[in-house]
Specification:
Elements: H1 2-27, H2 35-49, E1 53-54, E2 60-61, E3 66-67, E4 76-79, H3 92-104, E5 108-109, H4 112-121, E6 123-124, E7 129-136, H5 139-151, E8 156-160, H6 173-180, E9 184-188, H7 201-219, E10 225-227, H8 235-243, E11 248-254, E12 266-270, H9 277-287
Parallel strand pairs: 4-7, 4-12, 5-7, 7-8, 8-9, 10-11, 11-12
Antiparallel strand pairs: 1-2, 3-6
Helix pairs in contact: 3-5, 7-8
Bound molecules: zinc ion (ZN).
Residues 135-136, 189, 193, 229 line the site of zinc ion (ZN).
Length: 290
């Protein structure tokens, strides 16, 4: 009886796998036609392992997440360039050690969607969570950080400047598309990277709305997070960000993020170059509370 079941399973697997393989060989370009189904299955399986189940409408099911009584304070780490030369650039090897520390110490890296649920529902998919963010969308986010993040199976968010796409040392549209398919969310850092607190409400609104429309279109997504350029914002920015359709906005105010700051004024932990691994660890531990 058992033997038959094994044979039956093997036959079923053969039916599922073979068409994909054959197609790949015939086309000579991999399993492009058959792959989406298989990839989706793998994603669902991985998500389940990490405790990220989804309901039938694709919403994250937080039922299995750890619920906390006191308000969660979440470290949102802020990086810019992964290179060397000034106070905004973290050298690759330092970044590599920091990601290794996070992995070895059991940290789970959140997507924007998950971070929103952590902050608003006071639940976490894991006892230890961080949200990794990069401002400005430098090319090295693709050439250096992306590989290290993939090696560690980590998610992150890049806040891209609309006018900088395909320009100079910034990400190209193709790089953004590739990253967004592989765990890196691309969100808005406005169109022109100007200080919002010096603008009229109309100008601020244009920066926020036009960049959302741009990233929604390029990445075929609902862009939900805004990073205020140079951390500058005012009371109007908070309202306009929400009206433009963002669910959250991040600042450069130091420390862990919590809901009581307002979902459009979330604090971040700046990661500067020259930080020891111990220094990195204490920054994160001090910014985490639940
Ligand atoms: Zn910036």
């Amino acid at each position: 009886m058992k033997k038959y079941r094994v044979l039956w399973m093997a036959a079923l697997l053969g039916i599922l796998i073979l068409p994909g393989c054959t197609q790949g060989i015939l086309e000579g370009i991999g399993t492009k036609t058959a792959a989406p189904i298989a990839e989706d299955d793998i994603e669902v399986a991985e998500a389940a392992e990490n405790g990220i189940g989804r309901d039938s409408e694709g919403h994250i099911d937080t039922g299995e997440w750890i619920k906390f009584e006191s308000p969660v304070q979440l470290p949102i780490l802020m990086y810019h360039s992964i290179s060397e030369g000034n106070g905004l650039r973290v050298p690759r090897e330092e970044f590599r050690s920091q990601m290794a520390w996070l992995r070895e110490n059991g940290y789970y890296t959140l997507s924007p969607e998950e971070a929103f649920l952590v902050l608003t529902e006071n639940r976490m998919p894991s006892e230890k969570c961080v949200w990794l963010t990069f401002d400005d969308g430098y090319t090295d986010n693709y050439t250096e950080a992306f590989l290290i993040l993939k090696e560690n199976d980590m998610k992150a968010t890049v806040f891209m400047i609309g006018k900088s796409i395909d320009k100079g040392h910034h990400l190209t549209e193709n790089q953004m598309l590739e990253m967004s398919k592989d765990g890196i969310s691309i969100e808005s850092h406005t169109i022109n990277h100007l200080e919002l607190n010096r603008m009229t409400a109309e100008q601020q609104e244009a920066e926020m709305v036009q960049s959302k429309v741009l990233f929604d279109r390029i990445l075929d997504q609902d862009t939900t997070v805004l990073s205020y350029p140079v951390g500058r914002y005012n009371e109007e920015s908070l309202r306009l960000s929400e009206e433009a359709g963002y669910k959250m906005a991040v600042t450069t105010e130091p420390g862990g993020a919590s809901r009581d700051q307002g979902m459009h004024a979330l604090h971040r932990v700046r990661i500067s170059p020259g930080l020891s691994v111990d220094g990195f660890a204490s920054l994160i531990e001090n910014a985490s509370k639940h």
